[in-house]
Design goal:
Length: 158
């Protein structure tokens, strides 16, 4: 079982979109992010098992992970870590000095995952999910309201 991470150069497939929706239930926001960013897929035997969507931010030296997801049956196998390392390497190679990711304040597993990888919380955006999503989102039995911003400072490979 060999994992390959590659840029998606064709149209986004239903399999990609299903993975993207795992991490963000807003089709409208995903459509916007896909127009603005670059999508990568983690593939095993030609089947996408994970996705990574990166977009530039308004900050000149910053790139953001807008979406990262791994299929349920492939979780806890290191694929998420591989995608995160790929994002870090890609951002560094493209000359960015900061990698950003945002997640819900109730996303306990994701907050642990990003911090374990070296991300640091920078700030919280209150009521982001209340304002930007039509339906309430519940995660870990808690009504998701706030967005947590995390940053990772990148060091050049030069």
């Amino acid at each position: 079982m060999t994992l390959k991470i590659q840029k998606v150069t064709t149209n986004v497939t239903p399999a990609h979109f299903e993975l993207l929706l795992e991490a963000d239930p807003s089709k409208e926001l995903l459509d916007r992010y896909l127009q603005e960013g670059v999508l990568f897929e983690a593939v095993i035997e030609k089947i996408p098992v994970g996705v990574l969507l990166l977009t530039k931010t308004e900050e000149p030296n910053e790139i953001e992970i807008k979406n990262i997801a791994v299929s349920d049956q492939h979780q806890h196998q290191g694929i998420g870590s591989d995608l995160l390392q790929f994002a870090k390497d890609y951002a560094t190679e493209q000359g960015f000095s900061k990698l950003k990711v945002c997640t819900g304040s109730t996303s306990i597993g994701q907050l642990y995952f990003y911090q374990k990888f070296g991300f640091r919380m920078s700030h919280i955006e209150p009521d982001f999910f209340v304002v930007n999503y039509d339906e309430p989102i519940y995660e870990n039995g808690i009504h998701l309201k706030d967005l947590v911003h995390l940053n990772l400072t990148l060091t050049s490979k030069k």
